[in-house]
Amino acid sequence: MILSDYLNPGSHSTFITKGKISANKSNDFVSTEEVVDLNGATLFPGFIDIHNHGAVGIDVNAADRDGLLEIAGFLARNGITSWVPTLVPDSDKNYRKAIGAIDKLMEIQVGRPVAQALGVHYEGVFANEKMCGALRPEFFKKFKESEVSELPRLKQGIHMTTIAPEINGGIELVVELVRQNWLVAIGHTKADTDTLEKAARAGAKHLTHFYNAMTGLHHRNVGVVGWALTNEDVTFDIIADGIHVNPKMLEFACRNKTPDKVSLISDSVAPAGLGDGIYEIWGEKVKVEKGVTQNERGSIAGSAITMLDAVNRMKSLGFSDAEVSKMASLNPAKLLGIDKTHGSIEIGKRADLVALDKDGNVKITMIGGEIVFNAL
Predict the structure, then answer these.
(1) What structural domains does the chain harbor?
(2) What percent of the chain has pLDDT over 90?
(3) CB neighbours of 328 closer than 8 A, spacing ≥ 6?
C-alpha cells in the first residue's frame, strides 16, 4: 500500500509493506493502482497517549474488556494509535478487576480497528495527600516493603506509575519500582529540590501533567516546576487543553524545555467525546461545562480532550508539524522505550500513521499497516 498526495507531483509517498514503513519516495515512482490519495492531508506518526482515564462515557477503572475496546475505537478515530490505560487510586479489588480487563483487551486487540493498549499507568498510588487534585487520598498507599510487589500486574506490557518522592520511604520506593522494571514518573508532589535530585538519580526523571498538582515556580523557591525547567535531564508531559494550563504558560514551558523533551497527554476522563453534562466518575459527580471538568470538591477532574485536540492546540500556538509530531508521538515512544518501532515515520517502523487535513481533522488512521478509519 502507498499513502500519497498523488495530486501533488514531486511530493513524497509512504510505502507500507507487511505492516511496516518500507520506503519514502517521490511520487514520480508511484503507480496509480497502488495509491491511497491523501488529497493534500499531512501524514503524521500515530499519536501515543500515555495518560488516559477513559472516554465516551467509560472509565478505565470500571471498564470491562468491551468497554476498553469502545474507548480504544474512539481513540483510533481521533488519530491515536497507541495508548496506556490509566488508573486512579482505588481499592485492591478494583485494581485486580481493571488489570484483568486490560489483560483481556491486550489479548484480542491486534487486528481490530482500535488504538493498541501498551500497558498500564497507575497514577498516584503513592502520592502526597496535600497535592491530591482530583485523586482520592483514601486509596493512597504507604510504602514499607511489599507494596510494590502486591500491585496487580499485567501478563505483559509496560508498567508506569506516578509517585511523590517525598512520602516516607519515597526514594527507596523509586529504587524498588525501577528494580521491578516500572517506568517511574513524579507527580502529585511538593518535593523539594534535594528530594527531586535523589529521585532523579534513582531513576525518576519524568514529570506527570506538568504544572498541575505540583509546586510552582517562585523567584526564591524554584519548586517542582522550576526544578524541571532548569534540569536538562528531566522530561515532562503536559495537558494541552488550554484549561489545565493557560496557553501562554503552555507555550512558555514547551519552548523553554524544547519540543524534544515534552510529551503531550490528554488526561481524558469518561466524558471525553460526549460533550457537556453531569457524569458519575470515581464515586462522585463531575460536571463538564464548556469543556471544563469539575468535581464536587471544586477541582478540575481530568480533561475532555483527545490527543488530536492537544495536537491542534499546539499547532495553533505556532509549533511546527515536526515539533508537534515529536511531542505527540516520538517523545512518548522514547519515554515508554518503544521508539525503535513506534513514534516516527521511518523505514522499518510500524505503520501507525494519521493523516490530518489543513483544518486538523483526521482523514485516515492506520494501525499496523491497516487503515482503521477513513474519512477521505
Answers:
(1) 1-40+346-376 (2.30.40.10), 46-341 (3.20.20.140)
(2) 83
(3) 44, 47, 48, 263, 264, 307, 310, 311, 314
